[in-house]
Amino acid sequence: MSNITDLFNPPPSRDLSEKEVENCFYCQAMATITAFGAGVYFGTGRVFKNEKPGVNPLWWKKSVKLTGVGLIGYGIYRFGENWLWNKPNRD
User: Is 68 within 8 Å of 36 (Cβ atoms)?
Assistant: First the structure.
């Protein structure tokens, strides 16, 4: 069956094993890099670099920068998750 028909007739759902739902290193690294990179981009205000003056209100610019700071914090949190805090029990 082709991939296109799978969109309209998806296979039946199944229960995922514990191995399939645990955090992998590559997933954590991509989430960290993406959040930190987007946070730096938004937080420095480069989004508004070539903007004409008066197009966006000041409150909007500050909220975008604050969102960038939040994304940097989330990237730092994801960086340390599972080895500095939220350690899973490895019994």
Answer: no
Give the torsion sign (CA, 33, 27, 10, 16). Answer: negative
Cβ contact 73:35 at 8 Å: no
Partner residues linked to 81 by β-bridges: 85
In tens, the pLDDT along 6-52 reads 788 888 888 888 777 776 788 889 999 999 999 999 999 999 999 99
Residue type at 5 in one-letter notation: T
Q: How far is CA 49 from CA 43, 61, 63, 90, in A?
A: 12, 11, 16, 48
Q: Is 63 helix (H, G, I), strand (E, B) or coil?
A: helix
* Vertex 86 angle, CA 83 and 88, to 5°: 80
Q: For 54-75, how does the pLDDT look when each residue is reduced to its tens digit (9 = 90+)?
A: 899 999 999 999 999 999 999 9
